[in-house]
Amino acid sequence: MTTHASRLPVPSGRTRTVPPALHEFAYWLHRYRRTWRGTVVLNVANPLLFLTGIGAGLGTLVNHHNSAALGGLSYLAFLTPGLLAASAMQTAYIDSAHPVHQSVQAKGHYWAASATPMSPVDIYYGHLLFNVFKVTLSATAFTAVAAAFGAVDALRAPLVVVATLLIGAAFAAPSAAWAVTAKRQPTVLAVLRFGVMPMFMFSGTFFPLSQLPGWLQPVVQATPLWHGVELCRTAALGTGTAAGTAVHVGYLAVLAVVGLLLGRRTYQRHLHS
Fold first, then answer.
1. For residue 14, what pLDDT is reported?
2. What does the CA dihedral 253, 84, 240, 153 come to, rounded to 10 degrees?
3. Concatenated DSSP letters for 56-94?
4. Minimal CA–CA distance to 89: which of 32, 18, 169, 149?
5. What is the pLDDT of residues 169-197, one digit of tens each?
6. Which distant-in-sequence residues (6+ apart) come within 8 Å of 57 by Cβ?
7. What is the pLDDT of residues 206-215, one digit of tens each?
8. Can you point out the beta strands (E) in the chain?
9. CA dihedral over 263, 176, 158, 22, signed as positive or negative
10. Structural contact between residues 157 and 147, judged by C-beta atoms closer than 8 angstroms
11. What is the rounded CA–CA span in Å between residue 133 and residue 263?
12. Taking every annotated instance into account, which residue ranges of this chain make up the domain ABC transmembrane type-2 (predicted)?
């Protein structure tokens, strides 16, 4: 069944069908139109506060006492790419898990959407597309501010944004795939507290991996955020190797694909009527 709204005129006189997932994306984008101003302010204000405080305060102390551990980098140059990666992870999880869990509850949006010609997979893809869009928007704003501060090379900034886009997909796809199955809101919050936050603290964002105990380093290297931090940092500094970049990109891409496959299954199972 094809609705009138799902067809667009083309010069040849024929009609072109819009992918149904774009209708779901348009719904979330319409909701975002009411809050985007506050989000943009936060996306600019937060990096300004971070970069100012770190560059003028903490960074000075670290540079003076422990610059050798950073390989000669300033702390600001070391930290900024890590913060970008960690922020992409947090945005992806928070904007995926909580809204998905709310949408699948009684009288939630997903049930209204599933009453339309859209399939559960269309709903999943459309919502996921919006989540990755938000991650990219936040990362672009953060990177622009960082480039203005000199914390990221302006010529390398686009590569950093692409890296955060991949990080966003790697976290958003499995997060949404799982959240649609979550029964209780405290479970969603528990994953944030005991899964996302420890990765934020111990995945090389704030200090080099070499500062951790030897037995803990392989554990950290197995986490997706460590690969995201390394990908962003090497992209920002131009220190990446072909092999290292391939490993980081491959790890995150596999996680995103696995999330997509799981999401197709979980959404079909929980939204099928």
1. 54
2. 140
3. IIIHHHHHHHHGGGGTT--HHHHHHHHHHHHHHHHHHHH
4. 169
5. 999 999 999 999 998 889 999 999 999 99
6. none
7. 888 888 898 9
8. 7-9, 15-17
9. positive
10. yes
11. 18
12. 38-270
